[in-house]
Each structure stands twice: as C-alpha cells, then as structure tokens.
Amino acid sequence: MNALRAGLAVAVVGAAGGAAAFGVGCGHSNSAAADAGTASRDFLLDPQNCGNCHINHYQDWLASAHANASDDPVFVAMNQRGQRETDGGLGAFCVKCHAPMAVLDQKTTDGLNLSTLDTKYHGVTCIFCHTAESVDTAHPYNANVTLSKDWATMRAELQNPAPVANPVHHSAYSTLQDKTSRDSAALCGTCHDILNPLGTHIERTFQEWHGSAYNADDDAGGETCAQCHMQPPAFRVLAPGGPPRPYAPHDFPAVDTPLVPDAAAQRAAVQKQFDDGAVRGALCVTPHGGIRVILDPFGVGHAWPSGSAQDRRVWAEVIAFKQGNVIFQSGVVPDGTPVGTEPEANPDDLWLFRDVMFDSQCNQVNMFWQAAKIGGNQLPAATTFNKSNPAFYGNHLLREFPKSGFLSSDGSLVPDRVTLRIRVQPIGLDVLGDLVRTNDLDAGIGSTMPTFDVPISGPGSKAMLEWTPEAASDAGLQSYPDPNDPNPGTTCVGYPGFIAGSSTPAPTPKCPQ
How many other C-beta atoms are found inside a 10 Å radius of the C-beta of residue 118? Predict the structure, then answer.
C-alpha cells in the first residue's frame, strides 16, 4: 500500500479502538448528507470513510491488488508506454478498470494524471463494486457495467441488511454482489475479460470460467470467482451495532502482486492460494529413462495461468540426477534471470505456460495494444467433475523431458532421482526489462517481482516434488501406460490417486489461422 493509505489505515484502527467506538454513525456528520438518511456521494467515494465502520473490509482491501490497481508501477509504466506508442489512442482503455471512478467522474481520460488526483479516485474502490447495478451480458468485458444512480444504496449479499439504523448509507441485496450467485461472476468478468482496441480477446478469465464445470450451482460442484478468491469465510460484526454475519475477506488473492511498498501480506495470501491447491499432477519416469510430467489445474475455475497470460511466466523446472550428478535439466532459472535466457537454456525442452501475441501477419509482438491474434498453451479448466466421463481427463496435459522422449537414444541412461517444481512470475522479468529499456519502469522496482512455487501433490505438500524408485513404490501410482515406451513399469509420484495415464500432449502456442 502507498504511504498515504498506510497512514490512513493506522488512523482508522487507532481512532476506533474497536468498531463500536465510532458509534452507529461511525464518525459521519449528516451536514454533508444528500438526504436525512445518507452521507454525501463525495463522502462515500472515499474508501477511508467506508473503513470507519467496516474496518476489516478496509484493511483487507488496502493490501489488495484492487486497492493498488492504479498505483502499481507496472500499470503506470504499461499505460504510459501504451499512450505514447499509440499517440494517445489507448485513451481510457486501461484506466476504466484500474481506476474506474476517476473515469466515471471525468477526472481522467487516459490515466496519465492519476498521481495528481485524490486517493479516493485511485484503484478499484468500494463504491464502484457496491453500487454496480447491471452488467452488459452481451458484452461482459472492458468494464461494461452500469452503476446505480442511487449511489447512497450499497449493494451486497445480505438479504436482510439493515438490523440497525444507518445514517451513512442505505443497504440492499443484489445477486451481482452475492458470491453464491453466478451473476457475481459476470460482475468480476467485466474487468477480467478484456478485448484490446484491435478486438483481440487478450484476457479471458470470465469466458474460461463460463465454459467450465464451475459455472454451475453449488450442489453441482460450481464455484464463482468470489467463492474462490474471498476465502476463508468467517462470522464477524460487519459494522458497529450489527450482529455477527458472514464475512468475506476483501484482499482477493490470485496471482497478481503489486510492486508497491508493504506488499508482504498480499504476497503471503497469493502463496497460500497456491499452497491450498492450484495445480495437481504426477512426475513419472519410464524404464528407458524418459521423464514425464502430467499437470491438471485442480480446483481452478478457469485456465491456468489466466488473466494477462501473455505477460505471466509459469514454467516447469525439471532436474534429473544419476549417482548425484545432473544428467538433464530444464527450466533452471537463476534469481533475477528472465525465463528462457538462463545458462544452457534449451527452448525445445522448456515447458512454459503462457499466451503468445501476434500481429495480423502472425509476427510475434510483445505489447497488448499490438496484438491482432493470440494463441496459448495454458492448462484448460475442467469441463466436467464426472470421473467416468473421458472429458474429465481432457485437461491433464503431459510433457516429455527431454522433448525427444528419452535421456539417451538407446534408453540406457535412466535417472535415479528427478525433481520437479512449478514456478510462477506474475509478470515476467523479460516484460519488466522491456519496460525498463524504454525508461517507463525503474529497474530497481522491476527487480522486486517475486517468483512463487506451486505444490502439485496436494495442500500442505512441499513445493518440490521428488521422484526416486523408492518414493514411486510408496506412492502407489504405478500403472501409468506410457505409449512411447513399449516396456511396462513406468512409475510416478504426485497427487494421491491422480490418474496419470489419461492425458493429452501439451500444445505449443501457435498463431491462429
């Protein structure tokens, strides 16, 4: 969080000494009210004022990517460069999701002046989400959401929201803000599905969810965006004078980690999201020395990675040993080194999950405003929860290491130990380096991008998965039929009960024709 917001947070908590210290009015004076029952719109625009009553929500939000959406240096650099390279053609394209109230109140047309605006116009704020009234379901992308003209009524998931008098705002129930309703996913989708100015669908998180098995009722295994990204639920007093009610955390951990001071809490929440289950799979070795990695986006209601997948760098690190010596490695990336430029990098062996952007002639491009076409190789979301349906295994992607299939041409070189890590950079160091090269991003800031490790053998497991003949014997995943090795006996370690034999060869990103 920035220094000003950090100070506000301390002031709110210190002055409160507990929510009840504010009283029902939470420090608000009706002198600025639009009517006798509410505060002024200007008062409600400021998340700090919301924090006077809703302390827990405010503290969560302060650490979130939503709060820092317009202050994150990567956003600032991308928007600045995009405006320059398009001669201002981007306009409000970026900022209408990253600082929507600033656009709606006509405080900015391109986001280049955000640093001069009051902090209530920075980021995705309370009033934007909680006064959203409708979504353009025919075009559920690029912030196509309509806010209510009744800005003094905050919408949320409580169906009996007013047990005590509230002199600050009215309250109402809405399915758009009810995380148990699929309508709420459409609200998230308005900013998490993006078509660039060329009409290219560069972010497709909502579309991916909409076509997945997770787009279903709870009793059918469905889950909305908020049910996954507003965990864990709890019961708390949500505002002074009210009873304990269901409380949903507002830090929204996913993968993005703003490069701002005091981001440790958000990074810890992102790592926990990975630790609780983002990918499951198996690491297998054939009798003739072939290494097989099979992955499935377990519990993820969209493709993985998702969002700005053209900028994310997610890859498999595989190292094979024989009597203590390294006999093969792929994806071993030293800290501070962009993926694909590491020593002895072999692009044929690197398994990198991402979108690749192309111009209209299928030449690869690096910036989202240049993309006329896009092709990816992410892990696809589940289309069914029925294990008896062959489609259940359609999102099990398999990759051979080395890509040729075996460590030696005659099959004589068989490792006695293999390790696997799945590694994630929310924004690749090569992307950040490109922004540094054009003087849009400070090199010192770019170097703070974290790299996360994602366990694949279940919650609480180590990030590094290790295969040895002994570990594979104990794992019980012994019946993997490898079509590329005629000899039976391929053994695996990984997620308990994972069916490694049903998988699809991992694709390579290609320009769509």
Answer: 12
The structure tokens listed for 428 are 């690749």
Residue 150: other Cβ atoms inside 10 A = 13
Mean pLDDT of the chain: 88
DSSP state of 31: G
At 345, the pLDDT band (50, 70, 90 cuts) reads low
Distance CA 485, CA 284 (A): 12
CB atoms within 10 A of CB 488: 12
C-alpha distance from residue 9 to each of 17, 195, 266, 319, 399 (Å) = 13, 35, 16, 46, 47
Q: Are the beta carbons of 232 and 124 closer than 8 angstroms? A: no
Residue closest to 39 by CA, chosen among 170, 225, 128, 186: 170
Round to whole Å and give the CA distance between 130 and 126. 6
Both structure tokens of 205: 């998180």
Q: pTM (2 decimals)?
A: 0.90
Q: Which of 226, 229, 185 is nearest to 207 (CA)?
A: 185
pLDDT per position as a tens digit, 246-297:
889 999 999 999 998 888 889 999 999 999 888 999 999 998 899 999 999 9
DSSP H stretches of helix in 371-427? none
| Percent of the chain predicted with pLDDT > 70 | 90
Span 380-402, pLDDT tens digits? 999 999 989 989 888 899 999 99
Residues 6+ apart with CB under 8 A from 476: 496
What the block records as the tokens of 192 is: 């998490």
Partners of 284 in beta bridges: 292, 492
Side-chain-side CA neighbours of 278 within 13 Å: the count stands at: 24
Q: How many residues does the chain have?
A: 513
* CA–CA distance, 250 with 125 (Å, rounded to integer): 11
- For residues 465 and 456, the answer to whether their CB atoms sit within 8 Å is yes
The pLDDT score that the predictor gives to residue 33 is 46
Q: What does the block give as tokens for 279?
A: 């990918």
> For helices 73-85 and 429-437, what crossing angle results, to 10°?
50
SS3 of residue 448 by DSSP:
coil
